[in-house]
Write a structure and sequence with these properties.
The chain is α/β, with parallel strands linked by helices. It has 11 helices and 13 strands. It is globular and about 65 Å long. About 40% of the residues are buried.
Length: about 350
């Protein structure tokens, strides 16, 4: 039996939720290629989410202290680099590493503790997967891999096939959009400088935190606070409405293992502006525009205006952008994981 750990789905509206949900769905669809049965380790409310033709094991708090497994379990896939539970000895482990963001958004004094914890998980794993070359480089540069190979398996594009739904209160006029947990590493506060000399509204969607105060303070400094809205988490149908209807999609994150929203915006062929940090240049490639590395407000505004003008003139091939987004496939991701499971069985 192969177990895929979906424990982190307890945090909705996050990249880890999307990863677990999409990989689980595609594993179930392709389970005939697996040389064993499949079981999904899930928070209780998600039992049955992917149908009745797959096994489920619900998360229990005591699993953190002692995880007992059936003798039938041969492979356990830990879906993130800091799993809540560790499979017992004798069970082969696949470990997916999404990022080492603590290197970029935590004080240097805390790096040793985070690296030590990650080292233990790397030492335990039998097969290690990184979601980007950027994450792989961070692993190789900061962890003693002890000769273990790190494979890159990209995430997929979230293609929404339902009805796109407008928000209850639609924006009036043109707006810029960004989405993600409202945390300092997302760097949203630098975007307020882009609202000068125009009438755009900036809308930021995602789980809120005290960092919202920093965003609004910057907006006050530039005199644009009345055109900045931090709206909290939104449903998938509403998120895609914002992406589809925005004037531009902005993602200035300084610590990103992959950047799922970037390829979602590419699919809708929007002008996209990213930071040039961590994985984003790898994922965005030549299909997007990049902000000044130091996020100088004046330089960013010039880059933004030039980028919009270039996009409107057709200097970015929209069809190539969409095809680039489509090259990231959850089906392909799951297929490779099944091959890894079969190799370990």
């Amino acid at each position: 039996m192969v177990v895929f750990d979906c424990e982190r789905m307890k945090y909705p509206n996050t990249g880890l939720f999307a990863f677990c949900d999409n990989v689980a769905s595609c594993l179930v669809k392709q389970r005939q290629a697996l040389r064993s049965s499949l079981c999904l380790y899930v928070p209780a409310k998600y039992k049955g989410r992917w149908g009745d033709d797959v096994g489920y094991r619900t998360v229990k708090f005591t699993d953190r202290m002692h995880l007992s497994c059936s003798p039938r379990v041969s492979v356990w896939h830990s879906s993130n680099q800091q799993p809540a539970v560790i499979p017992p000895k004798g069970i082969r482990q696949v470990l997916t590493v999404h990022d080492l963001n603590f290197l970029y958004d935590k004080p240097l004094s805390k790096h040793r503790a985070y690296l030590s914890a990650l080292q233990k998980h790397i030492d335990r794993a039998d097969h290690i997967v990184a979601v980007s070359e950027s994450t792989k480089r961070d692993l190789m540069d900061n962890i003693d891999m002890k000769g273990k190979y790190v494979e890159v398996v990209y995430n997929g594009l979230n293609q929404f096939d339902g009805d796109i739904t407008p928000p209850v209160s639609k924006p009036t006029g043109k707006f810029l959009f960004s989405v993600g947990a409202v945390l300092p590493k997302k760097n949203f506060h630098v975007l307020t400088a882009l609202l000068r000399g125009n009438d755009y509204h900036l809308i930021i969607a995602g789980n809120k935190s005290p960092y919202e105060k920093r965003i609004m303070e910057e907006a006050e400094n530039f005199g644009v606070a009345d055109r900045v809205s931090v709206i909290g988490p939104v449903t998938e149908p509403v998120k895609y409405w914002y992406i589809k209807n925005c004037t531009a999609f902005l993602f200035p994150s300084v610590a990103e293992g992959f950047g799922l929203p970037v390829i979602e915006a590419m699919y809708y062929q929007k002008p996209i502006f990213l930071s040039d940090r961590t994985s984003l240049p790898e994922i965005g490639g030549s299909h997007v525009f990049y902000f000044d590395h130091n996020f100088d407000p004046e330089t960013m505004l010039v880059q933004f205006n030039k980028g919009l003008a270039a996009f409107e003139k057709g200097e970015v091939d929209k069809e190539q952008m969409k095809q680039h987004a489509l090259s990231f496939s959850w089906e392909r991701t799951a297929r490779r994981y099944i091959e890894i499971y079969n190799e370990l069985l």
